[in-house]
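Take a protein:
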Amino acid sequence: MGISGFAGCIRSNSVEADGPAEELIQQGFAATDTAPPFETTIVVTEGTERSRVATLLKSALEDTGFFEISIAEYKWTTHLDLLTTAADENKNALFMVSWTGGWDPDDYVNMLFHSDSHPPNGLNINQYADETVDEYIETGLEETVFDDRVEIYRQLQERLVADAPVSFVRFGEVTHVWDADAVSGWQAYPLETGTYNAVYAPWADTVTKLEGSTELVADLGSDISTTDPVSMNDTASSQATQLVYEGLTGIDFDGTVQPVLADEWKRLDTTRYRFSLREGVQFHNGEELTAAHVKCSFERYEGEPREADVFDWYGDSEIVDDYTIDIDCRREYGPFERRLFDVPIVPMAAIDGDLDLESTPIGTGPYRFVDYQAGDDCRLERFDEYWFEGSETVPATAPVETVRLEVIPEPASRQGALEAGNIDVSYGVPSASLADLAADDAYGVDRHVGGGFDMLIYPLYREPFSSTAVRRGCNMLLPRERIVEEVYNGVGHPAYTPISPLLEAYADEEFQERIADEYVRSP
């Protein structure tokens, strides 16, 4: 039966609460006039570790006697459709999903919890609305003093945990494995979208070298959905084009903002910045970078799926000369310099409509896009007119001549391809294999706390989950430690708040423990 078919049948039998979590659930059931056991479904993507997570969640909640839960698995495209239409269609389902943020705390909260972020403009799929949360989000965006931003986002996180529109379950890790005999210099970028920055990112002082070959073969976890930045919303598309496109700034492997297409900038007043562009930078189609490319690339986002990437902060810009541009933010904007990393500058041919970036992605990056065969592979080749002139640690010419990214959805198949020598690097081998691979001198392994978390989303639009008490009770029962150890083999960390420990100032261990003790762990 599809998830829309479960009506949440009310039974007449009673359940005795046993402990603080159950008492909260009982309180919420009484307030919403719900009799246990309440029937519902946990929905997950098929073929993933989340089905095992869902089994543990099902057991923990059913043991209370208040719930009777089934598990439904769907292909990703169907799962996404169910997820984004859940509230509008009043679906009786809890969704187990993952979210990947970035280098700014806003990445972890705005799209998920602001009351204006309903699909299709956001992923607040259970239509959560709280004026205080909205105020924190908006104030945090406009605050430019670091310490004040930290305090705002800590208060915001505490508010979310207290209200529990979702349960944060696990912070993930980025784990990369490579053939140690063939690859040297590889690093795990903390965000999956930037996986292939490790090939050649001179602005991050990073370069990979190969032994006995000039082609690096690696993997993608799924097909590419688009190669146009204004509509790019999936990890595989970002990974495949990370070496093709560049923005004014970059964020290195330690989270520090670095100059890329802009070689320097300064703040003129509270909302106005002046950027100096590198001279002589060429696009892959032969155009030379100018301030006009920057202005038009920003304005190209208007009305597109990724419009918020720019128009959340962009007011206007003024071209001072060919290599100087003043950018006006429409408000004070704390993440400004970091946001520029996510806005690639594209050629005028794409801006004028003469070039379709969906079929021919063209940027200024160290590699040009050659070919993509859906379900097979993506091919890039070195761009020999790249602007970088070399440094003491990174050569002017990338050692890797070509990059081939094979589409390999299954983690076990990725490991098999690596062990067979068919690929050189993988970012998605099974977590159960990491310890053995790390102990084998034939492989290099790098693990890094990432920018993602797993969460259980409650249907707030339906009783009994409209009750904060029910959600908080469920949140207290979730077996986070067991999930990390038994499902992910110790890869990752229990999550109690949304902002990743990657942003340590906003979510350090002491803060996480305090929130867990106060709101999640039973006394």
Notes: The mean pLDDT is 94. Residues 38 and 52 are 22 Å apart (CA to CA). Residues 146-163 form the longest helix (18 residues). Residues 20-172+450-520 form a domain with the Dipeptide-binding Protein; domain 3 fold (CATH 3.10.105).
